[in-house]
Design goal:
The chain contains 1 helix and 19 strands. The chain is mainly β and 268 residues long. It has 2 domains: 9-163, Immunoglobulins (Immunoglobulin-like, Sandwich), CATH 2.60.40.10; 167-267, Sandwich (Immunoglobulin-like). The longest helix has 4 residues, at 140-143. The radius of gyration is 21 Å and the shape is globular.
């Protein structure tokens, strides 16, 4: 059955990518910044938002802000694009953010403000870019001209701008169930996406008999123009009463999109 809608974290898929560029690393001088939210969605009712950056490290940090863009393949895999025009529905022309650089003393916070622009004749749909924060520590040794070692950490926060009539559909299909050489069971469930916006929510697989969680993907995003995403679930033991598969939408981003699938024990 397809369900339609209009208009933290155990594992994140391109929801807060963290890339560390390192020459020589010392843990105590790597930037450590946390965020008030890991995804931002703007639409015609909510045209602005703010992101709070908190320095949880023991030294000051400086973050430079910019945008990253990714192309999305049919299976929801993504690759970074240096040319934003090659990304699907880039939000670059619709998004404004400030400041472009922030200095955050240890134990304090700074705010970044984001605004979506109103453009005439904008085609309905979802536009997406990633807010890139490139953060490094402020090391006193640098000012003294002494050698220093450190790391620059790049964070990516997905920003969605939704224009006009937004809708999506999702459903599950069992693609394969196999017994592996080490006597585990591999279950592959395909989650389909249709429509002009992302699916955003939590995906879980639960042992029906014990109620124990087998797999959890929080803050899952399946983005246009992807058609599906395959979930690979590994079970160490044969489920005696089957497996419950659930997709629960994040209420902040979508509604009426709950999807469930029961994989019966006889399938294993």
């Amino acid at each position: 059955m397809l369900l339609t809608y209009k208009k933290r974290l155990k594992r994140v898929l391109l929801s807060g990518i963290c890339i560390i560029s390192i020459n020589t690393v010392q843990a105590d001088i790597a930037a450590s910044v946390s965020f008030s939210q890991y995804r931002i969605v703007l639409d015609e009712k909510k045209r602005n938002d703010k992101l709070m950056l908190t320095n949880t490290g023991n030294q000051g940090a400086k973050c430079n802000l910019g945008l990253n863009h990714y192309s999305v393949n049919e299976d929801n895999s993504q690759s970074q694009q240096s040319d934003f025009k090659k990304a699907y529905n880039s939000a670059k022309s619709l998004l404004r953010y400030s400041p472009r650089s922030v200095t955050i003393p240890a134990g304090t916070s700074q705010t970044v403000r984001l605004i979506s622009r109103r453009k005439s004749n904008q085609v309905d749909g979802e536009y997406m870019s990633y807010l890139r924060l490139s953060c490094s520590v402020i090391d006193d040794n640098i000012a003294l001209g002494q050698p220093t070692v450190g790391a620059r950490v790049n964070y990516n926060i997905p920003v969605h701008i939704r224009v006009g009539d937004i809708q999506a559909e999702t459903n599950f299909t069992i693609m394969d169930i196999t017994k592996t050489n080490n006597n585990y069971y591999k279950l592959i469930v395909r989650q389909y996406r249709q429509g002009n916006s992302s699916l955003i929510g939590d995906f879980t697989a639960t042992d029906k008999q014990t109620g124990s969680q087998i797999t959890a993907i929080n803050n899952l995003g399946i983005y246009p123009p992807a058609k599906y995403m395959d979930h690979v679930i590994i079970l160490k033991n044969k489920p005696l009463e089957g497996v419950d598969i659930n997709f629960i939408p994040d209420e902040k981003y979508s509604v009426n999109l709950v999807q469930k699938l029961n994989v019966e024990a006889s399938r294993f």
